[in-house]
Amino acid sequence: MTAQCEAILAELNALPAQVRADYLRILETVVRIVPKTWSRRRGVRLQWLTLRHGDDDVLVQVDSGELSQYVDWDGPRSARSFSGALRVKLGTNQCAALVYGNAVDSRTWGWFLPLLVGQLPRLDTAVMVDVEHHTGARSTLSFPVTYRRLFVRRLRFPEDVRAILQRAKTDDG
């Protein structure tokens, strides 16, 4: 496993058992849905994932502009700029997460503007997951991605990511 994957595993194992279980449900959903919703033009779609109290199902919603109420897209962005929106989304849920690609800023102004200045929008090299739990635990996890090209380019998580989630499930923490 890479050093980045070991760091993610250590962060997950440092969490209390119930929080780690909720995080793992969210992260398994991320690994399952992100490759299906990725496109070269849009990159990793901004998606909200919520886990309701007493429910085992993770609810997935593609962001439909709700995030723009909380983020100044003209200014510099970081994980901190998403925290207000994440806190609101958490609301009465047990756990909430925002999923996005690390190259989200290269697609802020669409596809054509970067072309006018002679640049293609960058490919995401990692999937970022901001997770907040109702207990107050908050983490930003970064999962590396690769691209496989058969006829069309497809986003893939390396096997290390699946191994991290499997090990975090079996570790006592």
Can you tell me about this structure?
By secondary structure, the protein is an alpha+beta fold. The chain has five helices and seven strands; from the N terminus they run H-H-E-E-H-E-H-E-E-E-E-H. It has helices spanning 3-13, 17-37, 79-90, 112-116, 159-170, and strands at residues 47-51, 58-62, 95-101, 126-133, 138-144, 146-149, 153-156. The strands form two sheets. It has a five-stranded antiparallel β-sheet, with helices on both faces. A two-stranded antiparallel ribbon has the order 6-7. Strand 1 and strand 2 (58-62) form a beta hairpin. Helix 2 (17-37) packs antiparallel against helix 5. It starts with a helix and ends with a helix. The model has no long low-confidence stretch (mean pLDDT 81).
What is Rg? 16 Å
Q: Sketch the topology as an H/E string, one letter per element.
A: HHEEHEHEEEEH
Instruction: Determine the fraction of residues in helical runs and give it as a percent range.
Output: 25-40%
Largest sheet: 5 strands, antiparallel
Overall pLDDT score: 81
Tell me the strand order in the biggest sheet.
2-1-3-4-5
Low-confidence stretches: none
Residue fraction in strands: 15-25%
Distance between the termini: 18 Å
> Which class best fits the helix and strand makeup?
alpha+beta
- Give the tally of β-strands: 7
| Shape estimate | globular
Number of contiguous helices: 5
